[in-house]
Structure formats: C-alpha cells, structure tokens
Amino acid sequence: MRYTYLAAIPFILLLLSGCMYPQSERTENQVSNEEQLTVVQQAVESYREGEDGLVPIQTKDNDTHIYEKYLIDFRPMQEKGYISEIPGNAFEEGGVYQYTIVDPEEDLKVRLIDLQTTEELRSVNIRLDTYRQEHTYPAFGQKITDQVYSVDYEKLGLQEAPTVQSPFTQADLPIVMDLEGNLYIDYAYDLNQALEETDHDYEEGDDIRPLLVDDSSFVPAYSMPYTVEDGQAVFMEDE
Questions:
Q1: Is residue 59 part of a domain?
Q2: Do the strands 172-178 and 148-151 form a parallel or antiparallel pair, or are they unpaired?
Q3: Which domain holds residue 56?
Q4: How many structural domains is the chain composed of?
C-alpha cells in the first residue's frame, strides 16, 4: 500500500507560515474546535440533503491518503447559503486545521486534520531527500516490521529521534518510514490507549484506526493501517 501525500507538505507549510500566525489570535479562532466542528457537520449534512446527495469535497487523486482524501470545499456551501462563514480555525482562514469527511458515502463524519503535525514531518522529509541524493537507500533505522522502519536520525544529522505531538493524547509520537522512504506518524500509543479505554469488537485483520476517529475531533493523518494482535495495536502489513 502506497500513499503519495508527503510532497504536499512543503507547500502547505509555506502557506501556513505566511497566513496562520497573524490570524491566530482572532476572535473567531477562540471558539472551541467542537463548536466549529458542529457547525460544519450540520452544514455538510444540510448540503447533502439539499443538493440531491452531493457532498462538498475537493477533488483528490485516488491514491490520496484515506483521511485526507475528502477535504471539505467550503466555497459551494457559502455560495448556496449552507454556511455563513468559514470557521476561523480552518486552513482557508489562516487556521491550523483542515476539515475532512471520513466517509462521504455513509455517516459523513466531519473531523479535523491538525496541520501542526506536518511541520516536523516536513523538516525530516527535507533531510531525508538530501540524504537520498548521496545514498542509494533511505536512512533506515531499526526494523520494526518487514515493511516499517524507524528513522536513523543520526544519519540525518539530528540530535534525537524526531517526534510529532499527538492531537489525541498530546503524547510525542515517533516518525516511521516504509520501504520506499515515505514518512508516517506512528499512532500505536494512541491506539493502545483507545483499545484499553473503549469497548470494541475489533479482531485481528481489522483496521482499528476508527477507534481514534469515533470519539475525537481529529483523524490520524499521515498514518499507516493498524490492526490488533494479542490486545495490542500493530502495523497492518500487505500480504
């Protein structure tokens, strides 16, 4: 399974650096994520009902990561009066979140992608690209599975292993790499917390990432699929 989304990270961060921080203290950005999420959720549902089942999403390639594939397009919702204004915390308004729909065919869950998690990924990816210009292989670190490796941060000139702060638990999550050198966030810690705290019927072979989506405002962006094995979250590998 291959995702090709990291190339967009430098562009996103360039835009964020230019427009996010000057507006970060605006009044509308002080409204809670939950309140703004509720407004957008209701607007999306009304849009689908009023527009013969259509959903206001941006067009993405088929191989786009599942949690970034259905980004909300606010323009038609505004133009047709389904929403009065774009939430102040949205990327389009200089905020640090992108609004996404988890499954447009079913329950239309609206969730947030925390764009602050992209900065460390972008930084590591730049170093990784530089390293690959001089070496045959990516900077593979410790083998985690046959298809997943840690990042050898010393080869990249870093003082310690890079991490990303989780939007779910605020824990520092590791960055991992697949065999092609694509970077991902390792959400195993968050998933194990959810497995312990949530009644569920997931079995080995099931993708358990919805555990993080169902009871949160966020999606696990830049993630690989996980399943459960002996009660613990493990990477779901291709056969």
A1: yes
A2: antiparallel
A3: 6-115
A4: 2
